[in-house]
Specification:
Blueprint (H helix, E strand, L loop, with lengths): L1 H43 L3 H14 L4 H17 L4 H12 L4 H19 L12 E6 L5 E6 L5 E6 L4 E4 L8 E8 L5 E8 L7 E6 L4 E6 L6 E7 L5 E8 L2 E8 L6 E7 L6 E3 L5 E6 L6 E6 L5 E5 L5 E6 L5 E6 L6 E8 L2 E2 L4 E4 L6 E6 L2 E5 L8 E2 L2 E2 L4 E2 L4 E2 L8 E6 L5 E8 L4 E8 L5 E5 L10 E2 L6 E6 L5 E7 L4 E6 L8 E3 L5 E7 L6 E7 L6 E4 L8 E6 L5 E6 L2 E6 L5 E3 L11 E6 L3 E2 L5 E10 L4 E9 L7
Helix pairs in contact: 1-2, 1-3, 2-3, 3-4, 4-5
């Protein structure tokens, strides 16, 4: 009886298999037959139009037969290529998106897309700036100048002229009054819009417009503490600037009149900043990205009636829309194929016409800037930082040899080095851009042995400081919730410890002599106290050891002498030394002579003590009236001689 049941069960399963195999075989033969007919028309008859019809039939009628349908799409793309049609890209993209399990066809489709990209953009022009101008995000309408941010004497809006190769400051701020950012050219190329704010976290952001010769006017200021404004693009008619407004956790997309006045709010958002917004050439529509991080879509809003339409709706992340000069296309960044690429889509009356197509692969490090007559402008900031050692005569400050790189790989993203007190090790920060990781590296003085300690996820590192016994490293950084935090790493155990500092904004720290307490700076943001404090590890509050009469300013770094009796620090562009026993304070860098027209500004870097504690080394940069910079290393005796 049991044997009969087993037989019946097996028979039913086999019968079911036979019932399903027969239609599948018929489907395979039908798909293969059409595919072979298409191959004949393509390769034997040379009839591309007929081949396209047949391959399209395979894809539409036998899409469930993925191996054959993917092969048909590949041939379809080849036919479209021969005809010079953009439909070739659509065919290859379909293979990648809809037939991802067909690895051979997907690989060939990617190869063809890359080839098409090289053919279309291979003649593009690459321009390297002769002068450093960071965050370059706006090319002038005539393509002859670039607006960006200069950090030589503060944070200022600057313009680089490609013809004359000269850099001109539009604003003239220092490091302790206000800063400027986000320069955007007006449509006629005569003015630049930008934001300006003070260094305190509660200082409001204001929107300014300046001519190229520096004649600036305020067009909007939000007086609410902590409120922010970010310019995104001018209206092509020059009548206003599209901005993102932030008030706490609430954001708005708005237009500020170029003549000045309150913003006209187009759309409100919850907990979402508007990183990009682009205006149609007729000034009727604004394209923007909206949605949760990693899943943004491209949308368009009608300025007149506030109607919103979805242009791109895809599970991937689509962002940074840019309207073409003719208004017929919108380009954007997308990671729908796994890595970031630049895509385009035809558009009419704020609605898509056809499927999106890839323009350029491998665009992870590129930012979409703006359109100019020569085409789409992309910006890419390539930074390289490595660590070098150089012998120095401590009595004279003279170099005794050439700088040599330390023995560590990978190179290109290593910074903030610090010697251990015993002189046997060097610690520094390294950044792995591919893995998006930050780590502390400890290497022996001769580079023969290195260890890497990855920071906890979503944390940021500051200046490293060894404990006096050279057994642990600490720094004031940012934790995963973006709060200022004290970190301590014990290399022997590979254990990370952290304690909240309870202050707003960034901080810097230095260990005290006992290695269990530390000094740290508070820039007075968010209503906290301004000054330098000392705190025991694990405690919630510290005691103020430097409490100046003024309560606004900026600290950048603090360093203890090797015997931990004195504290050197950078404040408001000057270097000071404090005797920790007596509290005596003296400035060791001179103020700039404002009558010296040959010197535009002098900037000092972070101080560093000599091993014997008798001298302090300070980097110094001097900018002349034409913004040419000269970099020097200055040594100061501990006896508080003032730099002349």
């Amino acid at each position: 009886m049991e044997t009969k049941k087993l037989f019946n069960l097996v028979f039913c399963l086999i019968s079911g298999m036979l019932l399903t195999v027969s239609p599948l075989s018929a489907q395979v033969s039908g798909a293969e037959k059409l595919y072979e007919e298409g191959i004949y028309q393509l390769e034997a008859a040379g009839n591309f139009d007929e081949a396209i019809l047949l391959f399209n039939r395979v894809v539409k009628e036998y899409s469930s037969n993925k191996p054959v349908a993917a092969k048909a799409l590949l041939k379809l793309g080849f036919c479209y290529e021969r005809q010079g049609s953009q439909l070739a890209e659509e065919a290859y993209i379909q293979i990648i998106e809809k037939f991802s399990d067909q690895s051979q066809q997907v690989a060939q489709a990617r190869e063809r897309l890359t080839s098409l990209h090289q053919q279309s953009v291979g003649a593009g022009q690459t321009i390297k700036l002769d002068r450093g101008i960071a965050e370059t995000n706006s090319l002038s309408p005539d393509g002859t100048k670039m607006a960006g941010t200069d950090f030589s004497q503060g944070q200022n809006v600057a313009v680089y002229d490609f013809t004359t190769k000269e850099l001109t400051l539009i604003t003239h701020n220092n490091w302790y009054n206000v800063w400027t950012y986000y320069p955007i050219w007006s449509p006629d190329g005569k003015e630049i819009a930008y934001i300006q704010a003070g260094w305190k976290q509660t200082d409001p952001y204001s929107l300014w417009v300046s001519t190229i010769d520096g004649k600036a006017r305020l067009i909007y200021e939000n007086s609410n503490p902590g409120s922010k404004i970010f310019p995104r693009e001018w209206l092509p008619n020059g009548e206003g600037v599209v901005v993102a407004l932030q008030d706490g956790k609430n954001y708005s997309l708005a237009i500020v009149p170029a003549s000045g006045g309150d913003p006209d709010v187009l759309r409100k958002f919850d907990n979402e900043n508007i990183s990009y917004a682009s205006v149609s050439p007729d000034s009727r529509f604004v394209a923007f990205s909206e949605g949760e991080t990693g899943k943004k879509d491209i949308k368009i809003i009608n300025i007149e009636n506030r109607e919103v339409t979805t242009l791109i709706d895809n599970p991937a992340d689509d962002s940074a829309p840019r309207w073409s000069p003719g208004g017929g296309h919108i380009v954007f960044k997308s990671n729908r194929h796994g890595d970031w690429a630049i895509w385009g889509v035809a558009v009419k009356d704020a609605r898509p016409e056809g499927a999106p197509f890839m323009i350029m692969a491998g665009a992870r490090d590129f930012q979409l800037s703006n359109w100019r007559p020569v085409g789409l402008v992309l910006t890419r900031v390539i930074s390289s930082a490595d660590i070098y050692k150089m012998p120095v005569d401590l009595s004279t400050g003279k170099a005794l040899g050439k700088p040599e790189p330390i023995r560590y790989t990978p190179t290109g993203s290593n910074y903030l080095p610090v010697w251990s007190p015993d002189g046997q090790q060097i610690a520094f920060i390294t950044q792995n851009r591919e893995k998006r990781q930050i780590a502390v590296v400890i290497t022996s003085a001769d580079g023969s042995k290195s260890q890497e300690f990855v920071l906890p996820p979503k944390c940021g590192a500051g200046f490293l400081r060894w404990t006096p016994d050279s057994k642990a490293i600490g720094f004031a950084g940012i934790d995963s919730t973006q709060k200022s935090t004290l970190f301590r790493l014990t290399p022997a155990t590979r254990v990370w410890e952290k304690w909240p500092l309870g202050i707003a904004g960034f901080s810097r720290m230095e260990w005290s002599k006992d290695g269990n307490s530390f000094y740290y700076i508070d820039n007075g943001q968010g209503g906290s106290a301004y000054g330098i404090f000392k705190r025991t590890v694990g405690e919630k509050e510290g005691s103020n050891i430097y409490d100046p009469d003024y309560k606004e300013g900026s600290f950048r770094d603090i360093r203890c002498s090797r015997d931990y009796s004195r504290l050197a620090f950078w404040e408001n562009g000057a270097i000071y030394i404090m005797d920790l026993a007596t509290g005596m304070l003296q400035r060791i860098t001179a103020e700039r002579d404002t009558t010296d027209l040959d010197v535009s500004d002098i900037n000092y870097g972070s101080p560093s003590w000599s091993p014997d504690g008798k001298r302090i080394m300070v980097p110094k940069s001097i900018a002349d009236a034409k913004m040419n910079e000269k970099h020097e290393i200055h040594f100061f005796d501990r006896g508080f001689y003032v730099d002349q």
